[in-house]
Fold:
Amino acid sequence: MKKLSFFLIVFMVSNLSAQDLGQYEKERIVFETDTLNYRILKPLNYNPNKQYPVHLFLHGAGERGNDNKSQLVHGSKLFLKKENREQFNSWVIFPQAPKNDWWGYKDPYKFAYNVKESKAMSLVVKFMDEFVKREDVNKNKVYVSGLSMGGMGTFVILNLRPEMFAAATPICGDGDPNSVKNYSKKVPIWIFHGSDDTVVSPKKSLKMANAIIDAGGSPKITFYENIGHDSWNNAFAEKYFLKWIHSKSKKTKQ
Structure:
């Protein structure tokens, strides 16, 4: 099964043209002795005197590695579509967790990634803390999306930085229902899951939605009938996926 997943990822990455990959510039996050690869898409017709939204995207477990490429397998083409680049022009950031890490932190709820503490998420947080300080960033329009392991990571980073994000879209993920009070009333959330998912049960998303509601939040949730774990394809095909995200801005403090 692992070999099949590996070859599937190689095949899908090869289907991303060199031109597609080239638009996402290769970069590295370096902090002391730790390094994390990432890809970044600059806004269309970038003007350093303008401020642009930022969209952080967290990949799934199958895209971990050190090639600084596999993380683009799912989702990267969505941001490259001409109409999306024009209408939702923004910075798009795809970090890549190494094989021996995941988008967790000091994990209070145990998943099968055999990681005690995530350096990868720690580096992403440090990077985002600095990136949003840039003069060409619209600090009121910073977003996060993630699928599978990245869906879990979306809930994790919301807990770590509830003041940073204007909207979040976790796809087929899971999270800690005890941490939602930090962001339930602050961040609009649209959750996606396939009803037939046997990898991450859709009950996990329902659990998180219920916890957010109980904490005073108002999440949006979409279940896809007869769809398994790859519900990200359905989410990306949603007519209002990016429109909903970019309609959200952080409330300016008075």
In short: Residues 1-12 have pLDDT under 50 and may be disordered. The domain at 2-246 is CATH 3.40.50.1820 (Rossmann fold). The longest helix spans residues 2-14. Residues 58 and 146 are 4 Å apart (CA to CA).
